[in-house]
Structure formats: structure tokens, C-alpha cells
Design brief:
2 copies of one chain form a homodimer. The first copy, chain A, has 561 residues and is of the alpha/beta class. Helix content of chain A is 31%, strand content 24%. The first copy, chain A, contains 18 helices and 27 strands. A 7-stranded mixed sheet of chain A has the order 7-6-5-3-4-8-9, with helices on both faces. In chain A, helix 17 links the parallel strand 26 and strand 27. The first copy, chain A, starts with 28 loop residues before the first helix and ends with a helix. The N terminus of chain A is likely disordered. At the A-B interface, helix 1, helix 9, strand 17, helix 15 and strand 20 of A face helix 1, helix 9, strand 17, helix 15 and strand 20 of B.
Chain lengths: 561, 561
């Protein structure tokens, strides 16, 4: 970065000019003026106006401040998608604190690991997840303050009795007691706003972190990329928004920030139960949402059960590749979906389907195919396809290589893990570990994956971790876990096992039992237990004796074993 | 601005991470991958692909560099809207130089004033404007290099003969001779990218200036605000874009940047001749444009002459208030227009009509009324209405006061004019000098103007300047010039004159003749000559003896004199 080129005297700022930082507070500017009467709902439990929402953000900031928390402190949230979560999305970073969105789908071990790694001083805890943090004084000693939320029916007295004694107070009670006036300060836009964890190849989740500036820019670019889509397919001022990517998951793709910035009517669905989601979509006339293909499948099943169709629900899809069968069903059921591509490391959106007139001359089948690809780079995103020597490959729809990226919203490292950060960032580009090709008109297609992980229902599973657990079975000589395509979950783990000669009669269930035990004990998420075991006589290996997972994936997808 | 809050060790950037500056270069990222085959046309003279456009940007950067220009140098452009202008929009600031977009509609005096104030070292000069800079060595001594462009039919030899001897070379010849490879560096996003001049109340135009960051953010927010509009009214990936706000005019509202960022098909129309504009709209199937109400009126007249209608042309309107009659005609003629509000000082867009479901229940007349207002604040823009003591007024659709603003893209002062800059920025807010009210749903309505200027056809006229010229007539005792609503031009200057008793028989034409002479000599733009003179016996004054222009405007709009 060269120094400033022409900031001389003549261009000096006026004495009282306002230096506008790109901080999350500014995302509220438009909504404060244009949407004070618009509503935000939490399922069918709560509905209030933006005017009330702004007051509650102020109240929450006062609660945090009164508790003694300081700018720079980490505040963790364990909740379903609620209006409270949205309030924390704003109040925590706007107070200069760091919001940790805890992935409550991970195994208990991992949840505790992420909390003990990020060291939050406060935790906003939904009663349903209380068992996960056990006795936090011993198991998560950084947490000094626990704020309790409980959606269960009952009186406040009931709730008080149920609250563990370590709890500081109940969310609504504390908010009600706090002032609704808080003067959020301006500060450096490069201040860290959020952190969360992503599972990788090796055992421990890795922390990513994002600044205020990064979130503002991702929010602007991602909403823009969606809005530019052709009639019936883009985000609009008159949309009703509801997330179906959890708020603990990469900022729900920054759409809660985007929807609030635009001032849309919003609905937060709580826990994702297909019947509830579809009920809310129908009752609130939801028009804009997002989710992984697994969610799309659930919606389609539920609506099929009801014998009805969606009325042009716009669904941003990402997280896993959409299958053509699912795509076809979605269109037939009245869902307009827009594929995309992103990562935890990228805030997340990098590419989004751009539907314009270039697609008019495609046949219906070609359209479906196109819709299942990962879209094209959104505004400001730079992409290259590199071969093993770091040489950019042509964008001809055929040449493949590792996808490397630049954008203004990429995590700048991994939290307290500079080695992994330096591995992520090489030569000034972020390495996605995805193998991809790009067509001459900019359509991205992910063809393979360098990292040895499996994505099931939008969540990562470490192959290595599952292999380690299964290898404890006395009959296993060699084991490899790979992801195989699955209509419902995107991918599911499949274990390939070579048995020791003396245990040749071992049954698959016996080996899988180890996986189930690990899940029960909280060492592995339930979705990490392989759906199936295939027995092999010999394990495919590369010329240097490593497991040849590429070959295995081809073998299994071709159903040749 | 407080210091960074939580940039400690743990969040340190990876060694080879890329620090992404918001510089104009990055606006090309998406188009480079997704739109290399898309086309850009200059009227019916030139059509080339984005791939060629990128090469020509590189060539132009090499031309500038080979000429000996340095980062920080000012490069001025005097051209009609052409592919060359678009190339300069990118190549000049991407080279770290400052693009001066010269307003060729100003009087010759003023054009020279702006050049001698900004002191460009190079000038890209369309032959048609050569008379304006006269002998630049004497009249505009800062200019060391003149690059010649000429669209006239004829051979290169003809052109060479016509070129003044001070010309360095002809644009196409120089581009052809330069390499199409140029490695644009990264630099600080707060580097100044552009400068241009705005006419104010007092005589001399004032220079505003914008950084790379400001232009990138305005481009993102302004395109987003347009794209979110409901079906048939928003910017889309499949639009064909053509500017009808000149490229010398507040970056043509940053749409050339936006259209290129998205990768749209683009058409540049050259000089704005109504028949040519409509021909181009029909031939190229233009779907997205922008302009002042005067341009809209021209389009409607031309299309009426042809006995045809537009097919849903989306037109972003701004610069002056749209009259309801014009709005109605536009809708009837198949133009979907979206009003907005902006200023030279604000890059420019601050507000834009947001058309969503809130408008569904309006009657057609109410819709027309709503469409003539100035829209609501676009993303990130903060607005307040202040009374004379700087106290924010309620947004109730009734309380009026001065509109003050904050946004990430406001000029931070006036160029070499810190006093005026400090007047613009008071108390951390930019003072628009517009009197406005805002409804509870965020719709802005400009009701009056504090500054004593008139806007005719999108260009400012200084009342004071016209008053000074007319006051030279020996029969004039007192003169005041005000703007009166005009169907075609938005406003036109009207002169109110009190004659000296001894010259009571003087005719309006005699006094106006002074205005026409000033225009001929290049001291006043032609549109600055009042359309009419009204004679008064006494001039309305305030209690402190100042001209009471507010009263005059009411008198004249009520046609009570």
C-alpha cells in the first residue's frame, strides 16, 4: 500500500466535517427515518415496531454497560433465531464489544471448546441450551455474567425458580429496568464486531472474526447482488424477510443486517421446525429468505404434505451445491431460488446467481443446470483459479484449480491461530481449498474440495475426526470417511473400512455403534455419525501411499462398489 | 473518533493477507470476470466489448504516464458523453491522478475560471470546445498537455491539419501507440479521485472533491437504492444503460461507475440532441437512464412527435423537482421514473424514491404526488431537519427547517476555499441550504431554498450575478432575480425591476439586452438570461431592509402581479 498521494493542503477537511466510519450503527440510518412503523416479529410470540426495536437496542446496550462490560469484551449468544438475537446483532458491536455467535449444533465438547477459546465475559443463554455449558464456573470460567432467556409458557415466578443460581438476570426483566437512551459512540471501523467458529479438517474449530467495516460492506454488496436480479427473483423494498439460515451461522449471511438496513418487515422463526417455518411463511406472507439445500428440501416436503405451493418465495440458496432434482422440485413448488457461494471465512457471500436476459434463450433443462451452479462474483469480489504452482488458469469453463479470492470482507486470519491464518492467506489471496472452474461469462462451478471435510445439512464434519473414532474398533485395519451426495442433506459421511483378516465377519452396526456412543457423549455431533459403511478389501491410495479420497469419491458416486 | 478498541494481538492480520482498499479499480472486479463479452457503445459510432474497454483503460494510463504525468496531477476532460469519457473516469483516478470534469455548459469565463482554479496539467479536449480555452498557454497556463478528440467525419490527415499546434496528440492515435498492459497500483482509499465545480450564490464556482472510497460507496449505495425498487422500476442485471445526465455533471450521478461495476450493456449518447437520444433508446433498447426533469420533457416531446411511447424506460430523476403535470405525462408515455435528491456536494445521491407495497393503496393521483417528492434516504444516509438554532425538528411531514446530512460520500470541504467549507460543515453535519420536511415514513420534500440561486435545466444560476449585470442599466433603481417554476426547465430566472422615476418608460427588452450581451461575451451562460422582467413600484424587503425573496417567490408563483 503506497502512501496517500494527493492529500495536500488544498483538500483539507473542513473543521467541523464529519468523518463517516463504516460501523454497524450506520446500517440503521435509513430504517430510523423510513421504517419506524415497520414491524419485526418473533414467530407468533412477539411483534413490535422498529421504533421499539431501536429503543430495545439502547436498553440492551445499557444492560451490558451496567453489568460492567467494556468495549473489546466478548459477549456470546446461545439462542434460536429471535428478536433478541437481532437486538444482540446490533447492540453488542455498537457498544464496541465483540459478538460471539455460538454454533449450538456442534457437539457439546466443541461448544465448550469455542467458548473457552473466545473467552466471552457474558453469555445470553436460552434455557434450552443451559445443559451445554454445564456448570459454567468450572467448564467455561471466562463467563462472568449469564443473561437468561426462556420462551417456555409460565409466570415470571416459575422462570425464576428454574433459573440456575449463577444467572445474573432474565433478559426481559433486565431490559425493562434499563434506560432506553444510549448514545452509541463512533469508533474506528476496523474494530472487531463479531467472531464465530468453523469446523475444519483437524479436530478443533477455528475462530474467524470480522470488523464493522467488513460487515457493512458485505451487507451492501450482498443485498445489491440479490436486488439486481430480474423480476420475481430479486430483493425488494416490499419484501417480508425471514431467515432460514441460523443467526449463529456466519451472521445468517448478513441478511439480518441487510433487512434492517433496508427497513424490511422481518420475522424470526425461533427453532427451525418445518411445520412452523411453513406456517410463518404463510401467515406473515414471507417473500424473502435464505438457507441451505436441506432447508429447501424440508420446505418442499412440508408443503407437499399440505398439498399446496409457495407463491414465488424468493430463497437465496448456498452452503452446499443444489442438486438438479431438488432445483426442479423447487421451481415446481413456486420457490424462486438463487444459488450462491460463500464461506465462514468470507462473511460469507462471494458469488450469487445473476439472472438477467442472458438466460432467456436457455431451455428449461439448461436453466435448471445454470441455477444449480454457484453464480457469479458479487460486486467488488475478485476471483482467480490457480494451479498447484499458483499460476492463474483461464476462465474457460474447463480449466480447474483452487479458487482464490479477494474481497473487502474476508477474515484476516484465524483467531489465536496465526499458523492457520498464514495457511489461509498466501500470496495476497485467500485460499478457499475449493477446486473450481469459471465460465467465460463468470459463472462459478465448484467441482471438488482440497480440504478433507464433509458438509451435511450446512454443517461441516471433519473426516479425520470420524475416522479416528471408528479406528478404535478392534476389527478395523484401515478406515476412510468421505462425503457422498445426499438428496436431503447435501452430503452424508460414508465410512470405507478394511477389516483385519481375523475379524472378517464384523458387522457395520458394531463399528457404527462407536460413532453413536461418541455422539451421545458429546464428542461428535449426531450428524457426524456415518450413514453407512462399505467394506473394502484394499484401501485406494495415492502413489505416495496416502488415502486417495478423490478416487474413493469417484468410486462411490459411480456406485461401482 | 476514539482509538481502535480491540485490535490486540489475537486479531492480527495473517502475514500475506490482502488489505482491500475501496478504490475505483475494484469496481471493475466483477465485470472483468462476468462481462468481458458485454458491449459498450458510443452512439452509433463505436461499439466494443468490456474486454476491449479494459485494454483501452490500460492504454490510456500508459499515455498519461508516458506524457510524464504523476500521481496527484489533475487531468481535465472537456468532451460530450463518450466511451472516451468513461475510459477517463477509470484510467485517470486508477493512475492516482485527479479527474476534473469540466462543465462545458458554463459561460466561457467560468470554464476558464474552473480550469485555472483546479490547474490541470493535461486536458482531454473535444475539438468542439477548443474555442473555449482559446490560447491555453496564456489563458490556462497550467495545461502542459492537450490530447485532442474529434468526432467529425474525415481522414486522419484532415484532423491533423485542424489540430492547433499546441496539441500533444490525437486520442485514438496515442492510445494505439501505447501498451495495453498497465499494472494499476493499490493506494490509500482516501486519495482524491475527482474534482468539479458548482455554481453558488456568489460569483465564482466552488470546487468539490471526492475520494476513491467516497465514489465506491456512493456507487454501491445508489445502485442498491435503485435496485430494491419494485418490479418494472428497479435497476437490474439485464438493463441497458445510457446516461442522460452529462458525465461532467456530478459523475453523471456515479451511474457510469455503477453500470460498469454491474457489467451492464452501456450506450454513451454524445451531445444530448432529443432526436438522437430517442433514436438510441429505440435502437439499443435502453432500459435504464437518469436525468433532470428538463431531459424528461424533451424525451416526451420527441416521442409525441413520433406518435409512439416508451416501453417502460426506467428513468432516475433528480436535480430539480418534478411537476405533477410532467409526472403524469411521463407515466402515460411509458416512462417509469424514480425521483430522488442529491447535490454536487454529495457525490450526489442522498435520497431516492422507494416504491414498495406501502404505495399499493394510493389512488393514481396520490401516486403521482408521491412520485414527485424526493424519495427517502438511501442506505447509510442520515438526515435531520434543523431549525435556526440547530435544533432537530420532528419528522411529521409538517415541520420544516434546513436539511442537514451525513453520509460516507460528502465533499469534505471546498477546494482551496476553507471558509466556504467551514460554512458548509457546521456541527458535524453538512448544511444543504435546502428547506425541507420529512414525513413519518421517511419521505423527503424540499419546500424552499436558503441559498439565492436558480436551477434551470439542471444547472445553477447565481441570482446575484444576474442582478449585478442588469443593475448596470442606467434606468434600473433596484433589481432582484428569482426563480419561477417552469414546465420545461424546472425553474427560469425572472427579474423584478424598480425603475428610476426619470426612466419610467424603459422597456424590458432594453434591460434584458444587457443580459444577452453578457452571454455573448461569455460572462453569463445563455440560460442565465432572465426569460422575463416584471416592473414593480417598490421592492419587497424584510424588516431589516434585505430583499425579501421568499415574499417575491410567493408573489410570482401566485401570479398576483
Amino acid at each position: 500500500m503506497t502512501t496517500i498521494l494527493n492529500q495536500h493542503e488544498d483538500y483539507r477537511q473542513a473543521e467541523e466535517a464529519y468523518d463517516f466510519p463504516l460501523i454497524i450503527k450506520q446500517l440503521l440510518n435509513r430504517a430510523k427515518i423510513a421504517s419506524s412503523d415497520q414491524t419485526i416479529s418473533y414467530a407468533n410470540k412477539v411483534t413490535y415496531t422498529y421504533a421499539e426495536f431501536f429503543k430495545r437496542i439502547n436498553r440492551l446496550a445499557n444492560v451490558l454497560k451496567n453489568t460492567g462490560l467494556q468495549p473489546g469484551d466478548v459477549v456470546a449468544v446461545m439462542d434460536w433465531d429471535s428478536h433478541r438475537y437481532l437486538e444482540a446483532y446490533f447492540a453488542v458491536p455498537m457498544s464496541g464489544m465483540i459478538l460471539q455467535t455460538v454454533n449450538i449444533r456442534l457437539s457439546e465438547d466443541k461448544v465448550l471448546y469455542t467458548i473457552n477459546h473466545a473467552k466471552p465475559k457474558a453469555l445470553l443463554l436460552n434455557a434450552e441450551f443451559a445443559p451445554m455449558i454445564k456448570d459454567h464456573r468450572d467448564d467455561a470460567p471466562s463467563i462472568e455474567h449469564v443473561i437468561w432467556v426462556d420462551d417456555a409458557e409460565g409466570t415470571k415466578e416459575d422462570m425464576k425458580e428454574e433459573m440456575p443460581d449463577y444467572v445474573e438476570g432474565e433478559y426481559e426483566t433486565m431490559l425493562a429496568a434499563a434506560s432506553d437512551v444510549f448514545d452509541f459512540p463512533d469508533f474506528d471501523e476496523n474494530t472487531i464486531a463479531t467472531t464465530f467458529y468453523t469446523s475444519g479438517t483437524t479436530g478443533d474449530p477455528k475462530g474467524v472474526f470480522f470488523t464493522h467495516r467488513q460487515i457493512v460492506l458485505q451487507t451492501m454488496a450482498s443485498t445489491l447482488a440479490s436486488a439486481l436480479n430480474t423480476e420475481g427473483q430479486g430483493a425488494r423494498y416490499n419484501d417480508v424477510y425471514m431467515p432460514m439460515t441460523p443467526l449463529f451461522h456466519v451472521h445468517a449471511w448478513c441478511w439480518p443486517y441487510g433487512a434492517t438496513m433496508i427497513g424490511l418487515k422481518q420475522v424470526y422463526p425461533g427453532r427451525y421446525v418445518p411445520e412452523v417455518l411453513v406456517d410463518l411463511i404463510e401467515q406473515h406472507k414471507v417473500t424473502l429468505s435464505h438457507g441451505v439445500p436441506t432447508i429447501l428440501q424440508m420446505l418442499l416436503n412440508e408443503m407437499a404434505t399440505r398439498g399446496r405451493k409457495f407463491e414465488g418465495l424468493k430463497l437465496l440458496v448456498g452452503g452446499s451445491k443444489l442438486s438438479e432434482g431438488l432445483a426442479k422440485s423447487a421451481i415446481e413448488s413456486g420457490i424462486e431460488f438463487m444459488s450462491g457461494f460463500g464461506m465462514s471465512e468470507s462473511c460469507p457471500v462471494l458469488a450469487r446467481m445473476a439472472f438477467g436476459d442472458k438466460r432467456d434463450d436457455l431451455t428449461p433443462t439448461e436453466q435448471i443446470n445454470y441455477r444449480c451452479l454457484s453464480g457469479s462474483p458479487i460486486m467488488l469480489v475478485s476471483m482467480e483459479i490457480w494451479d498447484e504452482n499458483g499460476k492463474p488458469q483461464p476462465m474457460d469453463g474447463e480449466s480447474t484449480g483452487e479458487l482464490v479470492i479477494r474481497a473487502p470482507w474476508l477474515t484476516q486470519s484465524y483467531f489465536k491461530n496465526p499458523e492457520a491464518g498464514n495457511e489461509l492467506w498466501r500470496g495476497g489471496w485467500m485460499h478457499t481449498q475449493d477446486i473450481a472452474c469459471i465460465t467465460s461469462d463468470g459463472t462459478l462451478s465448484i467441482t471438488d474440495r482440497l480440504k478433507d471435510v464433509i458438509k451435511s445439512g450446512g454443517e461441516w464434519i471433519s473426516s479425520l475426526e470420524v475416522e479416528t473414532i471408528l479406528s478404535f474398533h478392534p476389527s478395523v485395519a484401515d478406515v476412510a470417511v468421505i462425503g457422498v451426495p445426499d438428496e436431503r442433506w447435501g452430503e452424508r459421511p460414508l465410512a470405507l473400512v478394511v477389516l483385519k483378516p481375523e475379524y472378517i465377519d464384523t458387522k457395520a452396526e458394531d463399528i457404527l455403534a462407536l460413532g453413536h456412543q461418541a455422539a451421545e457423549k458429546g464428542h461428535l455431533p449426531k450428524y457426524g455419525v456415518p450413514s453407512e459403511i462399505k467394506f473394502l478389501v484394499e484401501m485406494p491410495k495415492t502413489s505416495v501411499g496416502k488415502l486417495d479420497k478423490k478416487k474413493m469419491r469417484i468410486m462411490c458416486s459411480e456406485k461401482s462398489i
